[in-house]
Amino acid sequence: MISSQDFRDSIAAQLSVAAPRVPSLTAFVGLDGFVDEILHVVDKRYDAERFDRVPTIAAYAARLAAAAGHSTNVELVNVMTKLGGNGPIMANALARFGIGVTYLGSLGWPALHPVFNEFATRAEVHTVCGPGLTDALEFEDGKVMVGKHYTLKEVTWANIAERYGKEKFAGKLSSSDLIGFVNWTMLPYMSDIWASIQAELMPGLTGPRRKIFFDLADPEKRLPGDIARALDLIVKFQTKFDCILGLNEKEAYEVAKVLGLSCAPRQWDGLADLGLEIQKRVPVETLVIHPTAYALTVSGGKADVVAGSVCARPKITTGAGDHFNSGFCLGKLLGLDNAASLLCGVSTSGHYVRTAESPSVADLAAFMKQWPAN
Questions:
Q1: Do the domain assignments include residue 220?
Q2: Pick the residue with more confidence: 80 or 161?
Q3: Does residue 45 belong to any structural domain of this protein?
Q4: Has residue 329 been placed in a domain?
């Protein structure tokens, strides 16, 4: 596992040299969109303003379990309301780097939801239906995402064709340096959309191979057969694109289970071995797995592992994985190797969870050089 200050200083210098190229890069990302309420759960309230939050998911679970057979009251305090969804958060972070972003997703219909107005000032934004809604209950050891997804049934190939246009979609596929399709789990017709793209648009694509990024986004609730179909479709994109499949640790074990591999918890070296096994069965160009404390890639039969920057008391955790994805993709777009791109990913996420703000490229380089202790 790479973790030295010399390594971080070297990549920060490479990033600074490459920074002037960032505004020439383009990305086309979709297809979800949520309004996120970031919430704390009240443990003890002292007056109208002061309270202790429930600190951990385990403590919250114990409180709910104790109410079985009785009843209980749960008070949620809004910390912030923000744009949400894997796609908008990732795209917003890419735009913050200075990449030219086009976003297509469920951002409001017929008009854009106001929570996305600021995003629309830094990216070209298009919408096909209303957003989903998420109550993000944040704790010191993780988060519980409670979603209302009924509008996402309207993210279909027919609506994309009618409300955005196949020709425009094909143009973005053929001209963008990066394409990102994320949040497969919550978009019930995403696999059908991928199949339609492959049947109707990919045969006509010409020009150089481009990078395409996929994030399943916690597929535990989806049927094994549906997950297997999604993985097969992702691999088919490899005929025209250099495919990157991003997984967090939990998702890696879920995919392993579908593939018939051992999904017993492993340390970093064992998880790298599991990544090698997954990549043999899902032969994308690059497989990325990002637990909290480190991240790894598998490509060409080789694994790279880079230590992350663990934050004991994060300001925000919702969107941390999407920020990792944006940082990793930035590194790949700039031609950095896998290890350097991993460092870009963990540094982007590390900056975000501490500040609740997406970093610029300069912020990213500074974070690498001034690595926080916790």
A1: yes
A2: 161
A3: no
A4: yes
Planar angle of CA 311, 87, 161, nearest 5 degrees: 175
Task: Please report how the helices 190-200 and 166-175 are oriented relative to each other, as an axis angle in degrees rounded to 10.
Answer: 80
Residue 129 counted as domain residue: yes
**H or E segment and range at residue 291:** none
pLDDT above 70 coverage of the chain, percent: 100
One-letter amino acid for residue 37 of the chain: E
Cβ neighbors of 293 (< 8 A, separation 6 or more) are: 268, 307, 308, 310
CATH number, domain with residue 314? 3.40.1190.20
Strand, coil or helix: 235: helix
Q: How many angstroms separate the Cα of 190 from the Cα of each of 30, 43, 202, 215?
A: 10, 39, 16, 12
Is the Cβ–Cβ distance between 290 and 299 less than 8 Å?
A: no
Residue 91 three-state SS:
helix
Residues 6+ away with beta carbon under 8 Å from 48: none
Q: How many CB atoms are located within 10 Å of the residue 135 CB?
A: 15
19-52 per-position pLDDT tens digit: 999 999 999 999 999 999 999 999 999 999 999 9
From the DSSP assignment, how many helices (H) and strands (E) are in the chain?
13, 14
Domain that holds residue 339: 5-40+82-369
What pTM does this model have? 0.90
Q: Say which DSSP state 46 is in.
A: -
What is the full DSSP assignment across 243-276? EEEEE-HHHHHHHHHHTT-------HHHHHHHHH
- How many domains, the chain? 1
pLDDT in tens, 315-351: 888 889 999 999 999 999 999 999 999 999 999 999 9
Give the side-chain half-sphere CA count within 13 A for 131: 25
In sequence order, the 6+-apart residues with CB closer than 8 A to the CB of 268 are 1, 291, 293, 294, 296, 305
